[in-house]
Predict the structure of ABC transporter substrate-binding protein.
Amino acid sequence: MTDRRTFLQLLSGAAALPGLAGFGALGSLGVAASRSALGAPLPAATPVTIAFPADVPSWDPLVRVAPDPISIYRSVFDTAIDIDAQGRLRPGVVTAWRWKDGDGRVLELDLRDDVLFHNGDKLTSDDVKFTYFDRLHADKSLQVGGIWWALEGIETPTPNRAVMHFKAPMITAPAFLAYLGGYLISMGIQRCGALQPKFSGKVRDHAAPVSRVGKTHGSTRFVTANCICMMNG
């Protein structure tokens, strides 16, 4: 699995190698070769094309639990916890996590203090609470809510700490925070018009949680990302 940071690192490294025929280190992403069919080097400004066998059901990652487009989602959104090349959990946006009880009902998360969403908002524990509790309880149609069915509340004692409380043991919570249930969304989407204050707006069919500006080509809507919910850092 290749995440956004690894992809950009590999891409920049490959671009620095003259005469490279393709980006083989990128695995099964299907990145187009850096040379034309005739073998001549392509201009420096030539875009890189990546082909995936599946499309995303929505650009709102909470709408559907869909494993097929996970490579696309992970190139756009960050999960709370990361996964290394061996499939083990490792720190990501969340730098540390620990169970505060003995039966898997209280999970404490420590957050990085230097993460910004692409709209400039700083990530805080309020975004964690918004993503995994507030929004899922406000819109029961979001399938990720089925993953967090046992979550009964999230405390935010400091901007860099969140405490998840479960009504039933959920020892798989850290794994889901690194996988399909872990994509983080900024509270700032409420200010972008993508979701109404009561989260009654619909984000469906290629309409990312960003401001509704752009052109429509066929079934795909291209939008201007004034408030897209991705992270720098």
In short: The first strand starts at residue 82 and ends at 83.
